[in-house]
Amino acid sequence: MATKRVASEHETAGLPRLAVDVRLGRADDLRAEVELTAKLPADLAAGKRFTFAATLRGPQSSRATTLPVRIAVQTVGQQPEATATRVTGRVVLTEPAYWSPELPMLYRLEGHLHADDKPVGILDDTIGLRRLGVRGHSLWLDGRRWVPRGVTCDGPTTAEHDAQMRAAHHVGLVAVVTLGLPDAVEAGVVNAFWEQRLLEADRNGHPLFVRLNPGLTQQAAEQTVVALARHPAVLAVILPEPLVARTVDLKPQTGTMLLAAEVATANPPPLSAPAIDLLLAHLQSNDTPAASWRQPGSLPTLAWNSTGPRDRSGCDALQRTLASWRLAGNGPPATWDWAGFLIG
Fold it and tell me: N or C: which end of the chain has fewer CB within 10 A?
């Protein structure tokens, strides 16, 4: 959940900027364990002892102010791999500030990675700590049940695309965007067009669902997932059917970002899927699922209708339609309900 932000004052020293993977460990309202991992090429790391000389400071938010803290990163250890060495650090925050759409709190990681007490890389990232997960058939965000309502924002031009995203965020909807075109990710880094929009979403608390392009190769999909996981605003990545079979490879890269599989309600719901957190169910042309969906699977399921107004009224209409479907016939069981509603 960390993303590259602004130029570092240390770049004139010729040191490379290192990407840092962030994982939120045990976390509650009073304490949060944060793990940070940097990678160095194996040929540059052989025989060296690495330590973090960095601090995590904050939080800062576009919507609130609070007393900042500055905590040193503790070096946990290093692990050589086939092509790289992973160096792991740890920070424990008391009274942590988590990222949410209502209050997008962000921390800043600053400093260096040292090899034998000599700096070899720059650490300069902004980090959002997000508590997001699944309980039963529902999504939970920052300790509360969350029922996402969203609209597709895939305008044919940049201006129309941005206008759709602004309209969605203005009324508190999740913006569903497609990412992962062949030129959208370069060497594991989201290109400038998308990176700017993701950074703005992080700062302003604008939630996003990102659908991967079905034509992506497995390698490009993995690079895209890794890049998106660094942005707290990206709550879920939607995987088309060709990519669902490889989610076991993708899941370790996601942290608290959810992976969703696209399914069609013309077919029976899958009972489970390895490493998949939720389903995104495309409705039939009559806006209601097939009868087999009266016995739903075990995963939370978002309903997605391609027709209807792309605003809150469209989401509400879809919710009413499915409520009527739910009451007619035998089932679904009372313990199950749709986890969210998407239009477009």
Answer: C
